[in-house]
Amino acid sequence: MNKFELLGLEPPIIQAINDLGFTEPSEVQEKSIPLLLQDETDMVALAQTGTGKTAAFGFPLIQKIMPESRTTQAIILSPTRELCLQITKEMQAYSKYVKGLSTVAVYGGASITEQARQLKKGAQIVVATPGRMKDMIGRRLVDISRIDYCILDEADEMLNMGFYEDIRDILSNTPEEKSTWLFSATMPREVAQIAKKFMHKPIEITVGERNVGATTVMHEYYTVTGRDRYPALKRLADANPDIFSVVFCRTKRDTQRVAEKLIEDGYNAGALHGDLSQNQRDLVMGSFRKKQIQMLVATDVAARGIDVEDITHVINYQLPDEIETYTHRSGRTGRAGKSGVSMVILTRSELRRIHAIEKKIKQQFLAKKIPTGMEICEIQLYHLASKIKNTEINEAISPYLPAIHDVLQELDRETLIKKMVAVEFSRFHAYYSKAKDLNTSADSRATSSMEGGKGTTRFFINIGERDGFDWKSLKDFLKSTLDLDRDDIFRVDVKDSFSFFNTNEGVADHVLNVLRDFKHDGRLINVEPSKPESSGRRKKRNKGGKDFPNKKKRNGASTRSKKGKGHRGKRRSGYF
Ligand code: AMP
User: Fold this and answer.
1) For FRET with 48, which of 214, 408, 439, 466 sits at 20 to 30 Å CA-CA?
2) Residue 378 falls within a domain, yes or no?
3) What distance in angstroms lies between residue 452's CA and the mean position of ligand 1's atoms?
4) Residue 164 belongs to domain with CATH number
């Protein structure tokens, strides 16, 4: 018997589950589905996004709805348009074998008449953002006076966004004897109050630990002066060539400004904030989903409900005012079982706030140093070499090759390789060789992302994300292959097709011995001690160096600069 059948789900839903390829119920599904199917009850479920909670309420809801009646029987309130559309899509997929069942999405920024027309045809389930739902109730375009089920999804985010009054007004238009299911990642006082006020003896289920951020996320902070925030951001991006990130700023103005600067400097960046039209926001989100944008600079409100998987880094360009908001930000990465990194760029005076966050998320931050220019050059060099190696050859190049051979024929293999990587490397080297150290000396805990400090060895290894590793799984792999303890391997930095890690000097020979001629999945592993320039020499040379040789004063910034500046060369795209 299918595991979902054991939870009490019936054939039309099981058939849809099979189509979707779900084989195992997730924890929240296992806990909530039998309870919701069995009784008419109120429920509070503490579960993060990405845990499968849409199906946790969606499956039982679909089974309980009467498709033969066209009356609206359930509303699902969610904080953002993106989430609203996503839930609707999921509900439609889950109910595709339930004849006559219709789910309609109702959200701001789109034609209200068109949405009203769809509702008029009869929708048993309405998924809505609170503002638009209230608007439609006011105009009598929707009738929720006979619903049996009300689901509040991401309740904490809805309240954070200031929807309390809208929710209260919406609920006052619903019958007393309905069932309310509330889903929330965290349980701040406001959510507890909603549960107390609008729900009747709710059963409570918790997935993972209460109020705790996802453990697949590594938290890091970097201490710089306020002036160096932006150069620090650039270095973090350059030290992670395959970054796919959300950069959080506190205000719309900063968001726009940082995105514009990044675009000018040649990064694939875009801005997302409330001053953009819905159309502009859709465009940015579309490009981000397609990974044409690598760095999405966003305000907290605009980024709510973003459900894009594979985000590798969340960067807190500035810390948020509320600790809760930090949890939401960092929750954008490390989803669907993957690992992620949440980075905070801060000034010395903000350091104490890190301790408050650590307490809240029950996880320690790693104090890290902004990589030096030469460390970035090293990463970029390896990245380039592996990019060349992994490039698929387009056969359309063939007719040109004889002429290319003629041009390059005098060069031996060594020279050819040197020249090839120099083309790209020189740009970074010219830019970074005189770059200053951006770290403030405030935190003695801080360690460079490349160097391990005294008595440690930094290794390069030729496996990375392409081989299915993230920092966590690579650490586990090294730990078991080398028969070392967890603490013996640290500062694991995984890039696309290579990685770095540190060990204590004492085990360096052991690492080289074990991994020499070692094969992983049939591939020969190459491990070498990484050799960044000594920091002493670097400091001396960098005296008086500037981080922004090309920086020029800008006024009335245009979002569409023709050419990227500095080491990143031409801007490949800009999305506003
Ligand atoms: P959610 O937490 O509802 O946003 O779900 C996150 C993702 O997990 C969605 O893309 C779902 O389609 C998917 N999902 C939900 N339940 C399961 C399951 N039991 N097995 C595999 N994937 C699932």
Assistant:
1) 466
2) no
3) 38
4) 3.40.50.300
